[in-house]
Specification:
single chain, mainly alpha, 4 helices
Length: 136
């Protein structure tokens, strides 16, 4: 557990740091320096290999850091949405934790809510208010 907490903290800090404008400017500067040194190295295969290898390594590592951060953010948003559903009078508690359902069950919910939305738009077109819940 301690290792995963360390990794989560590290991934969050690294993703936050790498998303700053200064880091972007640094990356642009590295590429500009690489381009400028092209004539010095005769645009050799080694010159090209340096940037290809460097960018591939950075991209490979960043994918894992960003994915970890995105997973935690998504989980936090899901918990917050579940709490809003739970705490809202008249909300359907069956909608809690939808992300864990099988695709066909989820599709059933989606179809039901698409039908409710279409009916609400039709009613809206007739001048009926679009508030409240569809249940009596």
């Amino acid at each position: 557990m301690r290792r995963s907490a360390w990794y989560s903290r590290f991934a969050k800090a690294a993703a936050h740091f790498c998303g700053r404008p200064r880091v972007f400017v640094l990356a642009v500067a590295v590429i500009a320096a690489w381009v400028v040194t092209g004539p010095m190295f005769g645009y050799s295969d080694t010159w090209q290999l340096v940037i290809n290898t460097g960018t591939t390594i950075v991209t490979f590592l960043m994918v894992f850091l960003i994915q970890n951060t995105q997973n935690r953010d998504t989980e936090a948003i899901q918990v917050k949405l579940d709490e809003l559903i739970r705490a809202t009078k008249g909300a359907h508690n069956a909608l809690l934790d939808l992300e864990e359902l099988e695709e066909d069950t989820l599709e059933g919910f989606r179809t039901r809510y698409q039908a409710l939305a279409a009916a609400a738009r039709t009613e809206l077109g007739r001048g009926v208010e679009d508030t409240g819940t569809p249940e009596p």
